[in-house]
Amino acid sequence: MKRQLTITTEPIDEAALLARRSMSSGVGAAVYFVGVVRGIEDGARISGLDYEVFQRMVEHQMSLVFDDMAKRWPVESVRLVHRVGVVKVGEPSLWVEVTAPHRSEAFASCQWLIDELKRVAPIWKKAGGCDA
Amino acid sequence: MRVTVCFFSWFKDLAGCARTEATLPAASTVEELLRTLVVRFPELAPIERSALIAVGLDYQQRRHVLQDGDEVSLFPPVQGG
């Protein structure tokens, strides 16, 4: 399984990521997830979120998650981008692509992957960090 | 033995620092380290039981036995994604 993890403070360029999609001839499904910062957090309006990351541990933990994912489903590739630092409301903080032979494993593995990211990746967020 | 302790997220605010060193008897556990830290940083007392612990880059339980030179990280529940 090809895997790519990117932790970045730069805005997520979805068009550029899509342009770099690569699928072999036996792969018929590509599933995408984009997580966008909401305007309300814990009931209060916010202008953005400030993400903190323990990057070395995220890289290690997600490597373990990718290993597990490859054992569970016939996924050809996974690309995951998590933006950190200040992310304004309406901007994506998470971008995920999973490619697999069929949609059932692509959808299932993508949901599982995001659930695992949220369970183990040492990333934290707090409101603010942006001009209103 | 000496270990390095790193605090993340709002635990840095509680401790007043992002990083510190701790000297412990050989074969001390994470639990024993936490008790030492609460004495040094009383503001950590409320989170002693709920903190997540990593030694190096792996999550560990409180019964985990530390080694000289370990880097121990303390942080609240993660919020990625």
Summary keywords:
heterodimer, A: alpha+beta, Aldehyde Oxidoreductase, domain 3, four-stranded mixed sheet, three-stranded antiparallel sheet, 3 helices, 9 strands, 32% helix, 38% strand, B: alpha+beta, Ubiquitin-like (UB roll), five-stranded mixed sheet, 2 helices, 20% helix
Entry summary:
The complex is a heterodimer of chains A (132) and B (81). With 132 residues, chain A is of the alpha+beta class.
Topology of this protein?
The complex is a heterodimer of chains A (132) and B (81).
Chain A: E1 2-8, H1 14-19, E2 29-36, E3 40-41, E4 44-45, E5 48-53, H2 55-72, E6 77-83, E7 85-88, E8 92-100, H3 103-120, E9 123-127
Parallel strand pairs in A: 1-6
Antiparallel strand pairs in A: 2-8, 3-4, 5-7, 5-9, 6-8
Chain B: E1 2-7, H1 11-15, E2 19-23, H2 30-40, E3 52-55, E4 58-59, E5 71-75
Parallel strand pairs in B: 1-5
Antiparallel strand pairs in B: 1-2, 3-4, 3-5
